[in-house]
Write a structure and sequence with these properties.
single chain, Neurobeachin-like 1, 28 helices, ARM-type_fold, protein kinase binding, mainly alpha, WD repeat, Neurobeachin_a-sol
């Protein structure tokens, strides 16, 4: 305390000994180190009080400008605290002291100084100040995300609830200074380096991922306003590094995903912001009309950047919905009119074909995510939008790419369309859309590819065939076959074979009549090209290959399906019997449940 030079020497020695714990780069996973820094009880007596006074002196001298020696001391102090917090047993006690408030005060002033220097176009070296800011933000991360949950999330590793519950030490309580500090940093942020903005976003994500209590304190109207403003700013790059701006957008979207997930696990009295409010602002930005912008900003280069941002935002919707409380979040999305917003995005889109494909693919992915395994969401989509409307919208975008058609296949099976044999049909409507689109496809290769896949997926089992028959697919196929002049012969044969398979399941008199009428030609003596394959299909229906089965039956496929009988006291007479044949089809394997305990039907 009486010898500042000795104190600095001791701090230097301590920091040098544990330098491997100074992992201040948010982009890197923390390095595994066998040793840990000492606990507070093993440090010299009163050392924390002495360091607090030293830090306070630095804060008090900030307004007049710190000398080089004091700048070095303040950086050394922050490094010391980071190292100390890497012994997780120290986190709570360090967090309860006033160090963090002093560090935030200094960081606020330094960031303000960096902005003003950029504004005045000064070329002086700002490296020492930037180094302090980066270490200060890493110190905050050490307090509020001691297990580095955010870094693991960024690296693609998701921690389960069980893994989080095993984390012995809790993060320090978030200081009330954080929200004003975060908000202030992003005022006039165009004068702040993109890399420093990314560090600030990393810190926000770390606080939200570190623990629910701090997350709910950090997620406020002010911080949400900042995130939306940062996102909106990602389309005006000016002279900034495109990679850094793209990374900033990606981090902002990851922060918003984390925010939505944390809000889902909280009660209404704990939240400062509702998920519906965030989604409302999110869709408003997603559908913002760039044609209203001044001409200088409406250049082709800006347009491509804005489309890239929209694609990122659409992909984030899928990431948001990848959570344990998916049905709850799906309901919130439905109440936010997400279907209307997504369709409007495609309707209002007037961009280059390459960008258009990316946008359409990502939009279909987002729609699939909202409807995933939710019969209610599918019904809402049919009522509010309708597949006829989405077909017209997609058709207006020009010839579809293979990627777009494959995405519609994924929508039908709610998974990877290539996993035929693993996934059955979850949504038959996209299949009807694909059949209707076949005559419009100029590429014969695409016609053959789509029809071949349809033939396989629709006939994979009794369940799939029944779904297609109930959706009147037979009539849709016959309507498509009327356009035989533009259909490739292989495509037509695939459709007729599919029709035969569905017809063996169920074929009405009206459908049979339409099929026979299909074979009429204007020239009586000239046979229709479909005569032979259609006759084969009719014979296949008549032969009824395979085991004999009932034409009418109960479908107990869904997990909650069953047959209810009246309670015993309502049974007529003295007894009641119920007889039925049971057909046990092989269940489709759902890849998402393969690791979980298996389910089985029970007969009572």
């Amino acid at each position: 305390q009486k010898d500042p030079d000795y104190l600095k020497l001791w701090l230097d020695s301590f920091v040098s000994s544990y330098e491997q714990f100074l992992d201040v780069d948010f982009e890197k996973l923390p390095t595994r180190v066998d040793d840990i820094p000492p606990g507070i009880s093993l440090l010299p007596d009163n050392i924390l009080q002495v360091l607090r006074l030293q830090l306070l002196q630095c804060v008090q001298k900030m307004s007049d400008g710190l000398e080089e020696q004091q700048q070095a001391l303040s950086l050394l102090l922050v490094k010391f605290f980071i190292i100390l917090c890497r012994n997780l047993a120290n986190v709570e006690e360090i967090g309860m002291c006033s160090y963090i408030n002093h560090v935030i005060t200094m960081t606020t002033l330094y960031i303000q100084q960096l902005k003003s220097k950029t504004k005045e176009k000064e070329v002086a070296d700002q490296t020492p100040i930037e180094e302090f800011v980066r270490h200060a933000l890493a110190f905050c991360e050490s307090l509020y995300d001691p297990y580095r949950n955010w870094r693991q999330r960024i690296a693609g590793r998701f921690l389960s609830t069980v893994e989080k519950s095993r984390q012995k030490y809790k993060p320090a309580s978030l200081t009330v200074e954080f929200v004003p500090f975060f908000y202030q940093c992003f005022q006039e942020s165009e004068h702040l380096k993109e890399s420093l903005k990314c560090c600030l976003l990393h810190l926000f994500g770390a606080i939200v991922a570190g623990g629910q209590r701090n997350a709910l304190q950090a997620v406020s109207p002010a911080t949400m306003e900042v995130l939306m403003r940062v996102l909106a700013d990602c389309d005006s790059w000016n002279d900034r590094n495109p990679e850094e701006v793209s990374r900033k957008a990606e981090l902002t979207l990851k922060c918003l995903t984390e925010v939505v997930h944390i809000l889902l696990t909280s009660s209404s009295d704990q939240r400062q912001v509702e998920t519906s409010t965030i989604l409302e602002n999110y869709f408003k930005l997603l559908n913002s009309d760039h044609s209203a912008l001044p001409n200088p900003r409406r250049c082709r280069q800006w347009e491509s950047r804005f489309i890239a941002l929209q694609v990122q935002m659409l992909n984030t919707i899928t990431a948001m919905l990848d959570c344990t409380d998916r049905p709850v979040l799906q309901a919130i999305f439905l109440n936010s009119n997400c279907f209307e917003h997504l369709i409007r995005l495609l309707q209002n889109c007037k961009v280059l074909q390459g960008h258009l494909d990316c946008l359409a693919v990502s939009t279909i992915q987002a729609l699939t995510a909202v409807m995933h395994k939710s019969p209610a969401a599918k019904e809402v989509f049919k009522e509010r939008i309708g597949y006829a409307h989405i077909y017209e919208v997609l058709k207006s975008l020009g010839q579809p790419s293979r990627e777009l058609l494959e995405e519609l296949m994924n929508m039908a099976v709610e998974g990877d369309h290539m996993a035929v044999g693993l996934l059955g049909i979850s949504n038959v409507q996209p299949l009807l859309l694909l059949i209707q689109w076949l005559p419009e496809l100029e590429s014969h290769d695409l016609q053959i590819f789509i029809s071949n896949w349809l033939r396989r997926i629709c006939c994979i089992n009794r369940q799939s065939r029944a779904a297609c028959v109930n959706a009147n697919m037979v009539i849709r196929i016959i309507e498509t076959l009327h356009s035989h002049s533009v259909l490739h012969c292989t495509c037509a044969e695939n459709l007729i074979a599919l029709l035969g398979s569905l017809g063996s399941q169920s074929m009405g008199s009206e459908e049979l009549l339409q099929l026979i009428r299909l074979l009429r030609t204007e020239e009586p003596k000239r046979a229709h090209p479909y005569v032979v394959p259609v006759m084969r299909a009719i014979l296949a229906m008549a032969r009824k290959q395979g085991m004999a089965s009932a034409l009418q039956y109960f479908n107990l496929y869904h997990s909650m399906a069953g047959i209810a009988v009246p309670s015993i006291h309502k049974w007529p007479g003295s007894a009641f019997s119920f007889n039925a044949w049971l057909c046990l089809d092989q269940d489709q394997v759902d890849p998402s449940t393969t690791s979980k305990s298996g389910k089985r039907k029970q007969l009572y």
